[in-house]
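I have been asked to look over a protein record a colleague put together. What it holds is a sequence and that sequence's fold in token form. Please read both lines and tell me whether the tokens look consistent with the sequence. I do not need a full report, just your reasoning and any doubts. This is what I was given:
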Amino acid sequence: MKNNLYLGLDCSTQSMKAIVIDPVEGKTVAEANVNFGKDLPQYNCPEGYLANADRLVKHADPLMWLAALDLVLIRLRDGGCDMAAIAGIGGDGQQHGSVYLNAEWQKRVQSLDPRLGLPAQINPALARTTSPIWMDSSTFSQCADLNAAFGRQIQTETGSSAIERFAGPQIMLFSQTEPELYAATQRIHLVSSFLCSVLIGRDAPIDFGDGAGMNLLNLKRSEWDRGITAFIDQRAEEARERSRVQMPVQPLIEKLPLLQKNGVAGKLCRYFTKYGLREGIPVAVWTGDNPASLVGTGAWASGVAVVSLGTSDTFFASMDTFRTDPDGCGHVFGNPAGGCMSLICFKNGSVSRDRVRTMLDVSWQFFDQDAFAKTPPGNEGRIALPWFEAEITPPRAETGLRANFDWEKAPPEVLVRAVVEGQALAIRHHSQWIGEFNTIRVTGGASKSAGIRQTLADVFQAKVERIALENSAALGSAMLAASSAAAESSVIGGATSLSAMTKVFTPVQDEVVARSETAACYDKLLTQLTQLEN
């Protein structure tokens, strides 16, 4: 029997996805999915998070992720996947989510019983029964405190200014509002490192890709930032004294796992043999979903950027050197393939485009193609920004549609191009600090639009490649499992190299070439764009 399959697991906001690849044959051999709301309704997270009277609070039940891990492996096995042929496992978790564990944790994770499920065995180890996730925005005060104390230093050293959804401010809030539970917390994991720990039966490290989304990792020194962690400790101590909690508070830096850039975290523990997996196969260090997608979309090496046209629009790319966004909008994470990656998120993406289409009462055919055939590139200087939600790049609380012309008097084709070009120019403007790119890969639902692809090519003056990937994070995790296992066994290159797997698993469906004659008009429109944003 050949043991040449690799499993990638992706624990996202609403589901747990699994993909099994065969790098030697160059094919995907199995996939499985668990939807949290549909398949695990007992955890009361229909959209991936628990209901809360405070709309800013978005927490999930960490036991749900464990139940999903059990169930997705059952579905792989029962679906006919040859589990014994899997030679390595990789994974990723939704970024920024954090899990809080007590003194029971070490004993529980080291002695998992195959006769029982994961949730029942890990439940007693939870110091906090819920986990804040990336959608949470309840830490405004903590972010203001951190930014006031550290200024631009927090961005230039951790890769981002203090961000509400990041784990550092979330930990700080927990220490201040529930000091007794925080004092009982002995280990704090991210979603990624928590699930990786369960797989290997001991504490797994946090990787630099996911760890950079905490405001705690000093990317310049490749270590936990002692100044920031000490500042949070000080606030935690003040809260403990106010509430008269008798238990001493362990320093935050001792609650955090070790850091590891990439490679193997450990060996698969005996518990998972119940699913047909072999005990002792290597488990790669888990990363965040965005870094995993960087690998899965084939953008892990320099020169290629990815624009994901989804509910929100996201721009990400690898970086040859560590640098940060002077405007403070972009983020820097570790790249699982080495070095760093950048990421910029625009909240008003496809949801806003769809709202404009509905307002105009036009078909997708008109929005995607016809409107562009009827209007010239540059739209005679008319651009618009559909900020129906409070935008985060740049941060603007005011909502509404912005245009530099009379919106009510223009025909539908002009309005469509104005919105698409405005969004494309915003992506270009806010990504310029990262560098220039000859190739941009587009993914997500709106990548099917020929008009949007051509607009991106012209605005960036770059080749735009469309790739069809529904599970780029899970695929990236499977690729990292294969490359990490090969590196551990001193196998260099071959079918399990990231370069070889990228060619096989992320083929280009079609490409659009930039029209050089449009460059000048879009350069000129950048000035209009910045005025419109302000």
